[in-house]
Automatic annotation (TrEMBL):
Superkingdom, natural source: Eukaryota
Protein's UniProt name: Exonuclease domain-containing protein
Record's keyword annotation contains Metal-binding: yes
Entry-linked CDD domains: DEDDh (cd06127)
Any one GO MF annotation of this record: metal ion binding
Protein species of origin: Arabidopsis arenosa
This protein's GO CC annotations: cytoplasm
Record family assignment: Belongs to the exonuclease superfamily. TREX family.
């Protein structure tokens, strides 16, 4: 069907390591259908020029029954109906061990570095206001970035990331429930046939992944079971401790940037700038620690692992 774009989200995809303007196609959900956008995006300074046009696409069904091609098959974009299904975890076996032993692992695994910014630090009450991600394989449209409208939740930490309420409250900025299908489609577009995704974030286990899980749950989605979640902070600490075994290692992204004498594109604590920097840091850490893909897989968590820890901490 031919659709008219009446509202354009601030959704940007950049080619690997690039901050220049480029034409891209993205997806946005309006009512029960996903609409194809043609967007012209600029650099990490947050400014963008938008092009609206009619495009043709076909989608069927609502979010509750829409399916997308993942891992060479179909995985439902799951709509959680009640509390029982919200807390139910599908048994997947020891995914990390099985995958680490697969001789075809390089052909199966896609590594995506991610970062997000939030309205505050409380995972239950705060909201995500920016997401960025980058496929380390590079290529066209390998990087994703968007602001997110948090609704009525105020931003209390603008002094950290510089994101103001007026920047995210514009009608063209997608809300999280609109963004999740877009983000899933981006990840799907980077996956290898029959493969898995390793989502990397610095301090991800304590912060990014918990926020992401909470937001997916709030919007009645599940983190796909073929995603592995890797926190790069322990890798940084391990490397820094090998340099100074006597001290307590600091391994923030800024410390690692200075350690490796890396330059940053854009402002610190903006999602895309952090992702571009972490992509460089992560690759250097894996080299210095002599970590193979199998080693990294064994250090990963699943969403179910983190949900179990969150539930345990809640009871404590």
């Amino acid at each position: 069907m031919c659709v008219s774009i009446s509202q354009v989200s601030r959704f940007r995809i950049h080619s690997f390591g690039s901050s220049c303007c480029e034409r891209i196609h993205g997806w946005i959900k309006n009512s029960s259908s996903l609409k194809l956008l043609d967007v012209r995006a600029s650099s990490v300074d947050g400014k963008a020029r938008w092009i609206r046009r009619n495009v043709s696409t076909t989608t069927q069904g609502s979010r509750g029954n829409t399916k997308s091609s993942v891992l060479g098959g179909t995985v439902p974009l799951t709509r959680i109906i009640d509390e029982e299904s919200r807390t139910k975890v599908q048994p997947f076996g020891n995914l990390q061990q099985r995958l680490a032993q697969d001789k075809d692992l390089p052909k199966l695994l896609t590594v995506i570095v991610s970062d997000l910014e939030t309205t505050g630090l409380h995972r239950k009450n705060e909201r995500i206001i920016e997401i960025a991600a980058q496929d380390l394989a590079g290529g066209g449209y390998s990087t994703f970035q968007t602001l997110v409208n948090p609704g009525d939740v105020p931003i209390t930490n603008t002094d950290i990331h510089g994101i103001r309420t007026d920047m995210v409250s514009r009608p063209e900025v997608p809300r999280m429930e609109e963004l999740i299908p877009i983000f899933l489609r981006y990840v799907e577009s980077r996956q290898k046939p029959g493969g898995y995704v390793m989502l990397v974030a610095h301090n991800g286990k304590s912060f990014d992944f918990r926020f992401l899980i909470n937001e997916f749950n709030r919007c009645s989605y599940e983190i796909p079971h073929n995603w592995l979640l890797l926190d790069s902070l322990p890798l940084g600490r391990e490397h820094m401790k090998s340099i100074d075994p006597t001290g307590k290692p600091k391994a923030s992204l800024k410390v690692l940037q200075e350690h490796y004498s890396l330059t940053r594109e854009g402002d610190a604590h903006r999602a895309l700038s952090d992702v571009l920097l972490l992509s460089k840091v992560f690759q250097k850490l894996t080299i210095d620690l002599k970590l193979s893909l199998s080693d990294l897989v064994l250090r990963c968590h699943t969403a179910s692992d983190i949900i179990a820890v969150m539930a345990k901490n809640k009871k404590a």
